[in-house]
Amino acid sequence: MTTPDFTKPATALRAGDAERNAVIERLGDALAEGALDTAEYNRRLELAATAVTMDRLELLTADLPVSRAAQAKAEAAREEADKREWLNEWGYWGAGALIMTVIWGVSSLNAGELKWFWPIAPLGIWAAVLVSYAIWPDAKDKHRRSIRH
Q: Quick one: pLDDT at residue 43?
């Protein structure tokens, strides 16, 4: 085995086990969905297992359609990310509620009496917006659904 010349710019990125495994999984999906026959699958599988660079791996799947399994995984990941983002927004709401309530409390202590609880207005509007996201999907979600169906 020859030592690579590190003084020259790399022409292709080296592939790791994770990238090879992803390509092997994609080839398996293509076989299961009928996009590849067994002989072609076996040929590509061997090339994927021995590929050293990313460009070699990309060639093995370049002509394959996106599998239904991959689409389902991507959709599930997108829905999970949307849910996580929505829950994070509620965390921001809680932090905002805490900060505004502390400000209200300090100003009430300084005045020597309980003042009108003004944080209710911005917090109520903010909460209504967050609830509306759960009830009515935004245009991006509608567009995603129309593409799938």
A: 95
* Distance between CA atoms of residues 69 and 32, nearest Å: 10
Could you tell me the CA-to-CA distances from 83 to 5, 8, 78, 90, 129 in Å, in that order?
Answer: 47, 46, 9, 11, 15
Taking only the tens place, the pLDDT of each residue in 89-101 is: 999 999 999 999 9
Cα angle 43, 47, 53; round to 5:
160
Cross-strand pairs, 53: 14
pLDDT for position 134: 83
- Residue matched to tokens 């903010």: 126
Is the sign of the CA dihedral 18, 72, 84, 147 positive or negative?
Answer: positive
- Cβ(14)–Cβ(54) below 8 Å: yes
* CA pair distance 71, 52, nearest whole angstrom: 27
Tell me, what's the pLDDT at 41? 94
With DSSP H G I counted as helix, E B as strand and the rest as coil, what are the percentages for the chain, rounded to 5?
A: 70, 0, 25
pLDDT tens string 8-31: 555 678 989 999 999 999 999 899
Longest dimension (CA), the chain: 84
Dihedral over Cα of 91, 144, 26, 28: its sign? positive
